[in-house]
Design brief:
- The complex is a heterodimer.
- Chain A is built from 8 helices and no strands.
- By secondary structure, chain A is mostly helical.
- Chain A has 2 domains: 79 residues, Orthogonal Bundle (Rna Polymerase Sigma Factor, Chain: A); 63 residues, Winged helix-like DNA-binding domain superfamily/Winged helix DNA-binding domain (Arc Repressor Mutant, subunit A, Orthogonal Bundle).
- Chain B is α+β, with helices and mostly antiparallel strands.
- In chain B, the strands form 2 sheets. Chain B has a 6-stranded antiparallel beta sheet with strand order 1-3-4-5-7-6, with helices on both faces. A two-stranded antiparallel ribbon of chain B has the order 2-8.
- In chain B, strand 6 and strand 7 form a beta hairpin.
- In chain B, helix 3 packs across helix 4.
- The chains are: A mainly alpha, B alpha+beta.
- At the A-B interface, helix 1, helix 2, helix 3, helix 6 and helix 8 of A face helix 1, helix 2, helix 4 and strand 6 of B.
Chain lengths: 180, 212
Amino acid sequence: MAPETLGPDEFTTAIARHGRSLWVLGAAWVGRDDAADLVQETARVAWQRRTDFTPGSDVRAWLSQIARHVGANWRRRRGPVLVADVDSECESPVAPVAQSPDVRFDADGLGLSDELANGLAALSASARACLLLHVVMDHSFGEIASMLDIPENTAASHARRARIALRAALSSSAPVGEVR
Amino acid sequence: MSDSNREHEQDARIDRELRAAFAPPSASAFADAARDVVTPRGGGPRRLPRLLPIALAAAALLLLAWPVAAGWLNDRSSTSEPLTGDQLGAMWIAAYEDAASRGFQGGCCEPSFDLPQACLDRFACRIGVRDEARVAIAGSYCGLETGGCMAIIARDGALPMCVYVLPRASDPRVTLPAGSGLHLSRRKIGELVLYALAPEPVTGSLAQFVEL
């Protein structure tokens, strides 16, 4: 009879097996400095919610979903302060404050060029994740799509556009006189 | 240098720098972290997650507010001090994030939830959404404490939100703590007040709720 939920051994094996991918996803989602914390929090939440997991289904996709949701909460708290504006009669939406990049990358700390650090920060979290998971972890776009719950061609498009954006970031710093 | 050669060189540089900067820890490090979660050591986790301070603050508010909230929930005419707008805001944010961590589905809400009947049973008036409204009720939220308010998970198109319903007479004018990153909107309908908590402004969403 198949187990109804993840047992301790299966859970530990899953985290060990997919932790590196979750870390890279976390680095894209909340920044490299917080990636380890995000994976740990993901593991904690996943263990609490292990009865939600359907044995035999894609455990990496399930863990990635938890990581993305936890990371989204973290990113939201880092955004600009939004104060509720209550109107006496009608629904009152709060005017959004201009957004700055939600994740920053320390070029010196990471050993990245300034151009790439700034270029990465300017990407959406999804685009960063698609590129990093493909380049660093050598995941296929099908695997990335399942982790991000997006179509495979969307994952490929994200990665392609992210690479074009980073090329542009490198090109913008080209020495004077170089043909662009 | 041709464009294709330049792109090739740039791609090689991009890949080289990204692989060096984002090389993850070894698998054994994650195995250790998983074992700490499954079987916590006496000293607790190796590293405290960033969420912990906020979770502790929400838990502290909950502990302080619980006797008051229990009185409010059980007896509207109770002399217990009602929750303040700040306290409710903190509770609602914690509930929203709990629902968000579950993807706003499965395990935290009852899909068979009947909003008009639930409002009639609890508040003696029927509240629902307009016919052909773009807002859809996903179910009731039944996780963390929400200060005695009815908590609903709804979607306006693809945008999920938590909607909290309470009597106008008990509305403390809820406010959100700094740094939540969420938007809060409010609307009075009859003798009730509805608040919607969402990651974006939800203009028009609450307007689709009506008294039936």
